[in-house]
Amino acid sequence: xxxxxxxxxxxxxxxxxxxxxxxxxxxxxxxxxxxxxxxxxxxxxxxxxxxxxxxxxxxxxxxxxxxxxxxxxxxxxxxxxxxxxxxxxxxxxxxxxxxxxxxxxxxxxxxxxxxxxxxxxxxxxxxxxxxxxxxxxxxxxxxxxxxxxxxxxxxxxxxxxxxxxxxxxxxxxxxxxxxxxxxxxxxxxxxxxxxxxxxxxxxxxxxxxxxxxxxxxxxxxxxxxxxxxxxxxxxxxxxxxxxxxxxxxxxxxxxxxxxxxxxxxxxxxxxxxxxxxxxxxxxxxxxxxxxxxxxxxxxxxxx
Length: 303
Hints:
The chain is mainly alpha-helical. The protein has four domains: 2-128, no CATH class; 139-203; 206-238, no CATH class; 248-303, no CATH class. Helices cover 82% and strands 0% of the residues. It is built from twelve helices and no strands. The protein has helices at 2-44, 49-57, 59-91, 97-106, 119-128, 138-199, 206-215, 218-247, 250-258, 264-273, 276-285, 288-298. The protein starts with a helix and ends in a 5-residue tail after the last helix. The relative contact order is 0.03. Residues 1-7 and 121-131 have low confidence and may be disordered.
């Protein structure tokens, strides 16, 4: 059984070997035919037997060298095509690679810088992509940064001066407020003195002061003269109030006076100048608390 299985395998191996041998024989025949043709060409060309033998020996090397040369040229063509594509992409500034990456590095290299994108192309591409590059060189950008730093420092200095000026103005304002307060205090004391001189119980009649002030230098008596006129006007107004409230019924006058809690001094002057019976009737009709406050104002020595 074992022998019967081994027989077909041996036949298959022999068939393969026979095919290979046949192919090899054909190749050898073709090679011999080519050599024969080559020999005949050389003989027709008038080559000597030694030259023919040498040429036949170097035939295989020349064929191998020719194939290597063809591969070399094909490789060069492929590299040239890729370089052309790369140059085209850089020139068109696709993705900004030519203007942002290569231009700062190659802009000063002769001949090579010709593949870089033009300035107009950069501007157009930058505008389309939403990004503009206003500076063509690094020196311009640095100079602009320094100029902006100087402007920023100037603004800071101006701001500091403005703050100092504000502080100075604030101090002057505080001094002015203090001066105004002292001036108001002085004016109040001066007014009190003038009133005590002119309007006190021991002072002469106010008409005598009026006649006197009209006879003296107007520049010196202007302020006091105005006060006298104002006082006369107030006295006239007070007299009109007295006459008006004297004609009212006590309850009506009391109702009005109860609403004048913010000006009780004026109410006290009116009541004090009125007839005692009329004043008493009005006070009796008023709110008890308000009437008590008016009584204290009218009689401060008894408070």
